[in-house]
Amino acid sequence: MDRKEAAESVPPPVRPPLRVGLIGYGLAGSVFHAPLVAATAGLTLDTIVTAHPERRAQVHAEHGAEMRTLATTDEFFGRADSLDLVVIASPNRTHVALARQALEAGLPVVVDKPLAATAAEAEALAALADERGLLLSAFHNRRWDNDFRTVRSLVTDGVLGAEIRRFESRFERWRPEPKGGWRESGDPAEVGGLLYDLGSHLVDQALTLFGPATSVYAESDVRRPGAEADDDTFIALTHAGGVRSHLWMSAVAAQLGPRFRVLGSEAAYVKNGLDPQEAALREGARPVPGGRWGVEPESGWGTLGDLDARRPVPTLDGDYPAYYAGIVAALREGGPPPVTAQEAVATLRVLEAARTSAAESRTVTTGLA
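The structure corresponding to this sequence follows.
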């Protein structure tokens, strides 16, 4: 074996995993981010920040007694040099300040959606990340829902026809009594309500499929006694390519509509039910390398066709792990993250236009094309 062959036979050095600090251990931190980070090759969960003693106990029960927990973000940023990535899963009102602090400390950042309360704030964060040469990404994990992956495949493959005429998408619940908490607060500083909660996902999915929205119309209501923030909202988008997206988010749907109905020039696709990944994560299931994840039984499959002939379409597996795998690839190899800051800005522009439309009872033209 000559020197060249010997060099080629030597495996590349194993790089240590990127050390992740997670801020927040409520629903987003404990159910989504911590389990997915822990399951991703190339990442290791290093530190979790939560001020709640019971949540610190939960951290240790779920991630081991050796997991470092801190009570304040001051302590966290005091040891920023020991971290490679910050994940912000704290309440919406804190997203911008914490993301800015992380970027100023020289750390790449993942922020749970919405990235900010306004597009202008998100633009400023994106500019700071670009200036520092750092990754900034929003966690729009619903791009990797099993049903959305299936819709995207059907649209891309053209099986619905050359023209998609209307895209209908719903996140509906039946919660006649408000649960309380910051997500249902009427204080604008909390960035609560369904428009920014579920609407962030619905709008991001629509823009991912069909591109920029040129006009936005919305209806937004507070239906439940004692509720403060919108709990029943509808958005209609007209995309630059001509597709119309109709998006519903509601906490007062006593019977649920289809999760997706996509009307094409040759066929339609209708899908009921919800992607199973959140429920699996809540129940303690975890993705494992090489194993299937986000699998749906045949009974949950959607149908493709028309009034005369329809057939079930196997639902693609859900793939939330793909988000953090993409983050690792972006940090290790360069290139964009799986969701860019500018994509998050585009979603926020639509949400702002929807809020204006609902408040002023008019269609808002975005000026985008």
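The mean pLDDT is 94.
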